[in-house]
Design a protein that fits this description.
This protein is α/β, with parallel strands linked by helices and 339 residues long. Among the domains are: 1-55, 434 Repressor (Amino-terminal Domain) (Orthogonal Bundle); 164-290, Rossmann fold (3-Layer(aba) Sandwich). The chain has twelve helices and twelve strands. The protein has a six-stranded parallel sheet with strand order 2-1-3-4-5-11. Strands 7-6-8-9 form a four-stranded parallel sheet, sandwiched between helices. It has a two-stranded antiparallel sheet with strand order 10-12. β6, α9 and β7 (218-219) form a beta-alpha-beta unit. α4 crosses α12 and α8 runs parallel beside α9. The two termini are 41 Å apart.
Length: 339
């Protein structure tokens, strides 16, 4: 879909809406998108041109993958890689994947996608946090359902998650080992279950080491819709290090610090989470916790296959451990670069 969007100069959401037959796209643009999609070998689950529908040939079972619009970026995201990994593994199991992006409006109003309402798939995997109202609507569907990289304690829905709590802890503890005593946290704490858990891991480490928690050093990184803020506001008194809830946020924090004349890591150390592409292209490269994407995808597919075979199957919450990846964005408080 990104390839189609790039070729036509439109957004990925426009392409998704056109291929899924949703409103908000002119008939002329919808026709052009479908033509380019066909040229490039993409087979949409459904198009509504008013004349015909193009159906995907089912190869055994089919699984729908849903992702909130806020996690769809022009240059690709962590979730895109995870989606591709899951889709490839499902394909190897002779299961067709049908992807649909949840628009902000649909998520707000708990409007389920047509792959569910029209029963075009046999199961649903949701990748990335969605609002609780949308979860409530999904919990009522009569088909296998699971979440990836988030969970909600109010609903007994199977999920696969990275060990965000421990990840937040080991990032903070790494900074403590480097001698840092004033450590802040970048992330909107209640935006996702993952950010919340990473924050709690950070808090645990502060408590265990007798370090002060300062509320002004917990800084939000996204708005109420979950979209990353363009502007970053720093506190008047700065800590010597920041734990960031993601590599993307760490990248933005480092850029903002540089614009203020603050050197990273010489003046302030910054660490991230995910070990996604941005952590390696940033200058300096970002020390982070690596999420085992392949294992998360493998576990997700394994659970979904069991649920397709037996709709009553329950796995619970599966936790996948990560590991610390030391790069160049953190410095020993004495001035030595961390090794």
């Amino acid at each position: 879909m990104l390839d189609i969007a790039t070729k036509l100069g439109v957004s990925v959401v426009t392409v998704s809406n056109a291929l899924a037959g949703r409103d908000g796209v002119s008939e002329q643009m919808r026709k052009r998108i479908c033509e380019v999609a066909e040229e490039m070998g993409y087979k949409p689950s459904n198009t509504r041109s008013g004349k015909k529908k193009v159906a995907v040939q089912k190869l055994g079972k089919s699984v729908g993958i849903l992702t909130s619009e806020r996690f769809v970026g022009a240059r690709g995201t962590f979730y895109w890689e995870l989606t591709a990994n899951i889709s490839n593994k499902l394909s190897a199991m002779n299961v067709l994947t049908v992807y649909e992006c949840i628009t902000g409006e649909s998520e707000k109003n708990a409007v389920l996608p047509n792959i569910i309402t029209e029963k075009k798939v046999d199961g649903i995997i949701v990748i990335g946090q969605i609002h609780r109202e949308y979860i409530a609507a999904l919990s009522k569907i009569d088909m296998p359902l699971m979440f990836v990289d988030f969970y909600d304690n109010r609903y007994d829905i199977d999920s696969v998650n990275s060990d965000s709590y421990h990840g937040g802890y080991i990032l903070t503890d790494y900074l403590v080992e480097l001698g840092h005593r004033d450590i802040g946290f970048f992330g909107t704490v209640n935006a996702t279950s993952s950010i919340n858990d990473r924050f709690l891991g950070y808090i645990k480490c502060l408590i265990e080491n007798g370090l002060e928690y300062r509320e002004e050093w917990t800084i939000g990184d996204r708005n109420e819709r979950g979209i990353l803020n363009d502007k970053i506001d720093f506190p008047e008194k700065m800590p010597t290090a920041f734990v960031c809830n993601s590599d993307e946020t760490a990248f933005r924090v480092i850029s903002a610090l540089k614009s203020k004349g603050v050197r990273v890591p010489e003046d302030i150390s910054v660490v991230g989470y995910d070990n996604y592409t941005v952590s390696s292209i940033c200058i300096p490269t970002i020390t982070t916790v690596e999420v085992d994407l392949d294992r998360m995808a493998t576990e997700s597919v394994d659970i979904m296959m069991k649920k397709l075979d037996d709709p009553k199957y329950r796995e619970g919450r599966k936790i996948i451990s990560g590991r610390l990846i030391v790069k160049n964005s953190a410095l020993d408080i004495s001035g030595k670069r961390a090794e």
